[in-house]
Structure formats: C-alpha cells, structure tokens
Write a structure and sequence with these properties.
- The chain is about 20% helix and about 35% strand.
- With about 130 residues, the protein is an alpha/beta fold.
- It folds into two domains: about 50 residues, 2-Layer Sandwich (Signal recognition particle alu RNA binding heterodimer, srp9/1); about 70 residues, Roll (2,3-Dihydroxybiphenyl 1,2-Dioxygenase, domain 1), CATH 3.10.180.
- The strands form two sheets. It has a four-stranded mixed beta sheet, covered by helices on one side. A four-stranded mixed beta sheet has the order 5-8-7-6, covered by helices on one side.
- Strand 6 and strand 7 form a beta hairpin.
- The longest helix is centred in the N-terminal third of the chain and has 12 residues.
Length: about 130
C-alpha cells in the first residue's frame, strides 16, 4: 500500500479481524494491513480498499429500515458474473440472505457483522 491515491470505506464491527477475513475470502482480496484494532483488505491491482475497525458497543444496522432502529448509512455493491454461485459462496462464508429482497436480479445479504451488501449481475444495480 505504498500508493498515495487510495480510496476506500471503513466498516465498524465488534470483531474487525473476522470481518476482514470474510470479505477477503468473498472478494479474493488480500489482507493488506492488520493492527490490534482493525484490518484492511485490498485487491492486488487498483486503488480501492476496505478497512474494518473495532467499535465498542457496535450495533448492526437493520434492513429494511425500521423506525427507532439502527439505520443503514451505506451499503456495498459487488457485480458478479454468476449470481446464484456468488450468493452460495457468500452464504458458505457466513453471510445470510436478507428477508427483504427488492429486486429479482440483486441479492441483499448481511455480512457476519450485520452490514448489508448487494451482489448483482450485469444489467442490474444495487
């Protein structure tokens, strides 16, 4: 990570190292950095990263939104070539499929910490 034009997102979790391993296996990205309170994954090429940081008292967001519950402020979208296979892989890694699915060609899943993310195939959007 010697570049200086990186951009990324940071997700909070009660176990950031476990969440980093989940997304590393889901995306095939390497764990680029580990610290006591978090970890970062990045693809072998490109400038994006995802950091997972410890948050005491972390409360997962609720999908779909509900009044007086922790709201989603963002979610991750990942384009895949084979949606059923990608969903099965995510479930094997510990994700769970959300009860509410607003589109047929997009699957909303929840990572092990409860963050929603979308897997979609070309021609759809999350």
């Amino acid at each position: 990570m010697s570049r200086h034009d990186w951009w990324g997102v940071v997700l909070e979790a009660s176990d950031p190292h476990a969440l980093a391993r989940f997304y590393s296996e889901l995306l095939g990205w390497e764990i680029a950095k580990q610290e006591p309170d978090g970890a970062t994954i990045a693809p072998s090429e490109g400038v994006a990263y995802i950091t997972f940081q410890f948050s005491a008292g972390y409360v997962p967001p609720v999908w779909p939104a509900q009044q007086d519950a922790q709201r989603i402020t963002m979610h991750l979208d990942f384009e895949v070539t084979d949606l059923p296979t990608a969903v099965a892989h995510a479930l094997e890694l510990g994700a769970r499929e959300a009860d509410h699915q607003p589109q047929d060609n997009v699957r909303v899943l929840l990572d092990p910490a409860g963050h929603p993310f979308c897997l979609y195939s070309e021609g759809s959007n999350g």
